[in-house]
Amino acid sequence: MAICPDCEQEMQQADSCNYNAIIINGVEYERSREHFGEPNGRCHDCGIKHGETHHFGCDVERCPKCGLQLIGCYCLPNNIAILVKRPSSPRRRFRIIKP
Q: Using CA atoms, how far apart are residues 85 and 31, in angstroms rounded to an integer?
């Protein structure tokens, strides 16, 4: 079992991550809900239901700014992600480690 460090839910059982927005260069974007159409109706990496927000760090999640894979793009300054729960909540910062 893997617990999402953001929403603190079991990743393979939760329907969605609660942190549904990301701030990139001061602009708030809705996080990706794209999927590959897996036959079981859940993301193959983070386990969310199709059409819901991926858990941060999922290899399927796309950057809402450039459209590339979020964990591999260069849109996040200093590799820092600021995740937001809408409508309002405390913001959380996370470092993305890139190879």
A: 10
From residue 40, alpha-carbon distances to 36, 44, 78 in Å are 11, 9, 36
Specify which residues 27 forms β-bridges with.
Answer: 24
Angstrom distance (rounded) from CA 35 to CA 69: 12
Single out the residue of 57, 73, 59, 90 nearest to residue 24, CA to CA. 73
Q: Backbone phi, then psi, for 40, in 5-degree steps?
A: -85, 0
Q: Report which residue type is found at 48.
A: I
Confidence band for 98, pLDDT divided at 50, 70 and 90: very low
Q: Compute the C-alpha angle 6/19/21, nearest 5°.
A: 140
pTM, 2 dp: 0.79
Mean predicted confidence (pLDDT) in 42-67: 91
- Report d(CA 37, CA 30) in Å as an integer: 20
